[in-house]
Amino acid sequence: MVRVASALRAGGKGENFLTTTSSKGIFRCASASMEKSADDKIINHYTCHPRLMPRFDPGTPASTPADDPISKKQAVPYHLAKIRNSTEIALVFDGSQYFNANGMPDGNAHPTGNGVDNWRANSKYSWGNGELIPCPPANFWDNNYDAPVDASTNEDCTGYNGPAQQNIRYRHGRNDTANVLFCDGHVGAFHINLQSKKLVSGYYMYTTDFKRKNFAVNWP
Predict the structure, then answer these.
(1) What pTM value is reported for the model?
(2) What is d(CA 17, CA 122) in angstroms, rounded to the nearest whole number?
């Protein structure tokens, strides 16, 4: 995304998407809600893989100890050539939009999908398989990569609430399809089954063909 492009410059470290003025509206989705919309300079309707394209924080010094309790390493982008099964791994996808969330431009998606699969790959709070293959031995109970991702909600966010945060959004088709850029460069889609709608802890959840094997990656 924006930070990747700027990082290609000699000595470049990338820009923080929430403060950069480089976007120029290229991360706009035609099916996203435009009821409230951020300025073209910072508009973004897409979310990226939290391990492959982790959140960039220019305020964190390189000497900071590793945060992730599973990988024991700092969150840094993967080299594309090092990603195994790249034809199956989702890199960028339609993201849930935020409205009335203090500090988040209205209508924008969060750049990083930490909330996908119930926050398993969430920096210092990673848990379960951590979206890593092979599964951490201590968490062997979470090694079913053919299972659909958890928390398959299909909503946008009002404030910082609920399982839709930093998550995939199925806003195409009949409000049941999410467009996906895979690591090998091809574009595909994941879907939810609208007939599977179920109320769980106050939120509607769905079954999906988005599986953990489409999100879990080899260890860094």
Answers:
(1) 0.86
(2) 18
Could you tell me which of 53, 88, 5 has the C-alpha nearest to residue 166? 53
Residue type, 189: A
Name the H helices within 101-171.
Answer: 116-119
Yes or no: say if 67 and 129 are a contact pair by the CB < 8 Å rule.
Answer: no
CA distance 28 to 187: 16
Place of tokens 């203090």: 102
Q: Is 203 helix (H, G, I), strand (E, B) or coil?
A: strand
pLDDT, averaged per 10 consecutive residues of the chain (220 residues), comes to 44 54 75 83 92 75 67 88 97 96 92 95 92 97 96 90 94 97 97 95 94 97
Task: Say how far residue 24 (Cα) sits from the centre of its chain.
Answer: 21
